[in-house]
């Protein structure tokens, strides 16, 4: 043993065994560092769920399931009365209207970019749409507050109210008075914000359609629209729906833009031109000044939002993964 | 001509115009938002914005120095914590655990975190850091930003390492290079532009984040570099100023908004140019 070691030491800077063991140590260390970092992603998710549940626990114990269908939100009452119905309603309605606006337009842009647009214009228009996604949400909020809100309240809303006045159901949905702060304004801003997500994913999945399929359809005399309608969309349906769900996940959780222009009213009103609130807007505007049960109630709202978005996003990912598998084969 | 052909052609033209209209609609919003920002923001943009601190209520001079520096500091520290972590995690997913069950679980969870509402991240850091530490702090804000950075970097790192051709790795391994050196010396180097793109995109994403800072870093009217106390930052300052009754504050909010948007868009465009260079090579 001793002799062997001496020989090795004598080998000096070219000591093979030493170099190998240094390599091995470096290898093992690097492996475990990367593995630990990868696992920390799971820990973050676990941390989010645990910290939300701990924070929401007093409110869960106090209100139980009734929290979900109570409309009254009176944090300063004694004891505070808190119900999630208003914010949950606002979240679902604004996201729904936003998707109704964003889906046709987002798909239209994607079709334009992949099938109609001349090639030299593709990059600039594509970039402009992608930059819409880059603008911070507080800028959208500010812009909606100062520019879009007044515009809608002065021109678009009175017009719609007049048109649908007296029509049964629609008359109540588009009822006056016009307002700077309303569910509809928030929905429109949300629609603009999620538009790039729908477009980007649709463009990506439209590109996975094998050119042979499209060429065959054009070859038998189909028009552009018929190719899109009967070849491109059926082939990519799962991916498009995945993209839409991803955008929906964004819309549900969007905070700053909505907080500025929704009016923060917990009362549920039938008109979409009336102010309302969403889960994230309620948290953003009240959390900093809350304490005790009120704060716990807000965290419970956050937990509800997280569960909601988690399932929407999970469904979106599963659909996109299915398409990826198809494209891979 | 056959009436069926006519109606098919007419339908096609209508749809084409609708698609053109949709694209115009999208581009118009970007133009409108940028126009308003420049129109309102440029007017108030002068040297004082960069050299003076945020004014007290009612005052008509002052700038955004403390908020700008606070924002830069928190973004840099947040990215400094989040980017290496994300880089290593992405490395594991792409290099070591490619066919692991654990990898597919982590990838799935990461994709969900990527789009999780940022206000939830704020609530998480509030519960995990702010409450135990006994108060709002800039450090908590940095951590909240880091949590947002991680999934972005994990995703791009994994994608970019996946693009590195395997023969490169095999050649290095054949020369006797250990695995960790193959990754660091060969794979990282080959994917460098892509990795930087990922970090730039993540920086762009957090530079304008407001919601997670609202109840972690809060804001501060004064200049402070102390990470254990509240710190001014542009997004929250804008948020506070927009809702104030003071004309000068609103003016500052517009200038701040212009600064943030230009920074974020520049980062986005820079990342894209870098990414495009990579693919054209």
TrEMBL record, chain A:
CDD domains per the UniProt record, alphabetical: TM_PBP2
TM helices/strands, residue ranges: 36-60, 88-113, 125-153, 183-203, 298-320
Domain ABC transmembrane type-1 per the UniProt entry, residue ranges: 88-316
One Pfam family it belongs to: BPD_transp_1
Biological-process GO terms, alphabetical: phosphate ion transport
Location relative to the cell: Cell inner membrane; Cell membrane
Keywords recorded for this protein, A-Z: Cell inner membrane, Cell membrane, Membrane, Phosphate transport, Transmembrane, Transmembrane helix, Transport
Membrane topology note: Multi-pass membrane protein
Gene3D superfamilies, sorted: MetI-like (1.10.3720.10)
Coarse class of the protein's main subcellular location: membrane
Protein origin, superkingdom: Bacteria
Alphabetical list of InterPro entries matching this protein: MetI-like, MetI-like_sf, Phosphate_PstC, Phosphate_Transport_Permease
Any one Gene Ontology molecular-function term assigned to this protein's record: phosphate transmembrane transporter activity
Signal peptide: none
GO cellular component, one term: plasma membrane
Keyword Transmembrane helix: yes
NCBIfam families: phosphate_pstC
UniProt record similarity statement: Belongs to the binding-protein-dependent transport system permease family. CysTW subfamily.
Role description: Part of the binding-protein-dependent transport system for phosphate; probably responsible for the translocation of the substrate across the membrane.
Database matches in PANTHER family: PHOSPHATE TRANSPORT SYSTEM PERMEASE PROTEIN PST (PTHR30425), PHOSPHATE TRANSPORT SYSTEM PERMEASE PROTEIN PSTC (PTHR30425:SF1)
Name of the protein in question: Phosphate transport system permease protein
Organism: Bradyrhizobium valentinum
Automatic annotation (TrEMBL), chain B:
Main location per the UniProt record: membrane
Gene Ontology MF term list: phosphate transmembrane transporter activity
TM region positions: 17-39, 67-93, 105-129, 135-154, 186-207, 252-275
PROSITE patterns: ABC_TM1 (PS50928)
Compartment(s): Cell inner membrane; Cell membrane
Family annotation (NCBIfam families): 3a0107s02c
Top-level taxonomy: Bacteria, Pseudomonadati, Pseudomonadota, Alphaproteobacteria, Hyphomicrobiales
Classification via SUPFAM superfamilies: MetI-like
Keyword vocabulary terms for this entry: Cell membrane, Membrane, Phosphate transport, Transmembrane, Transmembrane helix, Transport
Annotated ranges, domain ABC transmembrane type-1: 68-271
Family, similarity comment: Belongs to the binding-protein-dependent transport system permease family. CysTW subfamily.
Mode of membrane association: Multi-pass membrane protein
Entry-linked Pfam families: BPD_transp_1
UniProt protein name: Phosphate transport system permease protein PstA
Species in which this protein is naturally found: Bradyrhizobium valentinum
Record bears the keyword Transport: yes
Keyword Calcium found: no
GO biological process entries: phosphate ion transmembrane transport
Gene Ontology cellular component list: plasma membrane
Matching InterPro entries: MetI-like (IPR000515), MetI-like_sf (IPR035906), Phosphate_PstA (IPR005672), Phosphate_transprt_permease (IPR051408)
């Amino acid at each position: 043993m001793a002799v062997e070691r001496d020989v090795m030491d004598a080998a000096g800077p070219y000591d093979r065994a030493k170099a190998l063991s240094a390599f091995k140590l470096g290898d093992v260390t690097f492996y475990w560092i990367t593995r630990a970092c990868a696992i920390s992603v799971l820990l973050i998710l676990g941390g989010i769920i645990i910290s939300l549940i701990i924070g929401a626990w007093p409110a869960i114990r106090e209100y139980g399931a009734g929290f979900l269908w109570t409309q009254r939100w009176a944090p300063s009452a004694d004891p505070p009365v808190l119900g999630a119905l208003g914010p949950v309603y606002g979240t679902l309605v604004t996201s729904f209207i936003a998707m109704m606006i964003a889906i046709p337009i987002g798909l239209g842009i994607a079709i334009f970019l992949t099938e109609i647009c001349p090639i030299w214009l593709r990059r600039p228009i594509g970039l402009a749409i992608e930059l819409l996604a880059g603008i911070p949400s507080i800028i959208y909020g500010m812009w909606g507050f100062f520019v879009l809100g007044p515009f809608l309240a002065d021109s678009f809303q009175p017009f719609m109210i007049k048109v649908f006045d007296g029509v049964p159901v629609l008359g109540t949905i588009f009822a006056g008075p016009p307002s700077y702060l309303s569910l509809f304004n928030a929905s429109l801003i949300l629609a603009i914000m999620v538009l790039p997500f729908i477009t980007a994913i649709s463009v990506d999945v439209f590109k996975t359609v094998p050119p042979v399929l499209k060429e065959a359809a054009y070859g038998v005399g189909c028009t552009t629209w018929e190719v899109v309608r009967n070849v491109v969309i059926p082939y990519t349906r799962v991916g498009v729906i995945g993209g839409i769900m991803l955008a929906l996940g964004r819309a549900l959780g969007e905070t700053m833009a909505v907080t500025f222009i929704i009016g923060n009213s917990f009362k549920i009103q039938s008109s979409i031109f009336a102010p309302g609130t969403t889960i994230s807007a309620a948290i953003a505007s009240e959390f900093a000044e809350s304490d005790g049960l009120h704060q716990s109630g807000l965290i419970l709202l956050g937990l509800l939002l997280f569960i909601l978005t988690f399932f929407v996003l999970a469904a979106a990912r599963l659909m996109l993964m299915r398409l990826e598998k198809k494209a891979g084969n | 001509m056959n009436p069926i052909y006519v109606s098919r052609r007419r339908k096609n033209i209508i749809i084409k115009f609708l698609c053109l209209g949709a694209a115009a609609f999208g581009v118009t919003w970007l133009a409108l938002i940028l126009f308003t920002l420049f129109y309102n923001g440029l007017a108030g943009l002068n040297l004082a914005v960069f050299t003076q601190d945020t004014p007290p209520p009612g005052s008509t001079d002052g700038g955004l120095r403390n908020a700008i520096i606070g924002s830069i500091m928190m973004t840099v520290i947040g990215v400094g914590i989040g980017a290496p972590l994300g880089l290593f995690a992405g490395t594991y997913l792409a290099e070591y655990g490619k066919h692991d069950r654990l990898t597919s679980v982590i990838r799935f969870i990461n994709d969900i975190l990527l789009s999780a509402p940022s206000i939830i991240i704020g609530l998480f850091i509030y519960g995990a850091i702010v409450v135990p530490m006994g108060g709002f702090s800039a450090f908590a804000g940095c951590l909240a930003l880091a949590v947002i950075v991680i999934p972005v970097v994990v995703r791009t790192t994994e994608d970019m390492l996946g693009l590195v051709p395997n023969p490169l790795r095999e050649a290095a391994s054949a020369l006797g290079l250990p695995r960790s050196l193959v990754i660091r010396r060969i794979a990282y180097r080959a994917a460098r532009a892509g990795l930087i793109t990922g970090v730039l995109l993540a920086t762009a994403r957090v530079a304008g984040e407001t919601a997670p800072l609202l109840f972690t870093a809060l804001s501060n009217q004064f200049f402070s570099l102390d990470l254990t106390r509240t710190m001014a930052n542009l997004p929250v300052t804008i948020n506070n100023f927009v809702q104030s009754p003071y004309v000068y504050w609103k003016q500052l909010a517009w200038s701040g908004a212009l600064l943030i948007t230009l920074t974020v868009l520049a980062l986005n465009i820079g990342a894209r140019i870098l990414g495009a260079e990579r693919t054209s090579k």
